[in-house]
Give the backbone structure.
Amino acid sequence: MQIDFTPAAVLFDMDGLMIDSESAVMQCWIEAATLYGRTLDNKMLHDMVGLHEKLSFKLLCEYVPEPEALVLAQTTDRLYHAKVAAGLPLKPGIMPLLTWLTDLGIPKAVATSTRRDRADLKLAQSGLIAHFPVVVTGSDIEHPKPAPDIYLLAAQRLEVEPTHCIVLEDSEPGVRAALAAGMTPIQVPDLKQPSEALRALGHRIVGSLAEAQALLQPILQPKP
């Protein structure tokens, strides 16, 4: 499916889209639970993908008593911070895509549910930060994805109209946030494949960032 307008900007999710972090987070939850003699529900772990920390914790409390959930969340956060500090791998195709967009002069922003301190660390450690003059995080908005706030703020800071933005996302909350903002999402699923209900929304779904770039190339080629 082709895109029938020339975008004024491309907005990027971070975890699971640019940085291969979702599997690392999931492993940290499993390790933390093991330390306390627990086994976490696999469906719950997959449902956490793309959620803001507060929403993840709320979901966890549906499976684990809140005092125990707090200990698990704190332990997971500590384990994950060590992985972030050591450096997480990039998703295949992200650097060629960013370099191409930068060469074309296309404005770009990060819109991630991750809190500010951790988002800044991830972007710096990965070398991605040089491509993004605007970074909006979960610390900057009141209502996280799937609410549209984070994408609307990113468009505002880039000084572009939301309807002129392409969004690259891996998760359902992110796709729904982009659609709610009036933007055009391209989904590159990571650990969790889109549900039938999500597919019914009719947005573009591709298998890789290279495929996303191929989808954008016809409308972003340099003018002769």
Q: What stands out?
A: The longest strand covers residues 165-169. The chain has two domains: 9-19+90-220, 22-86.
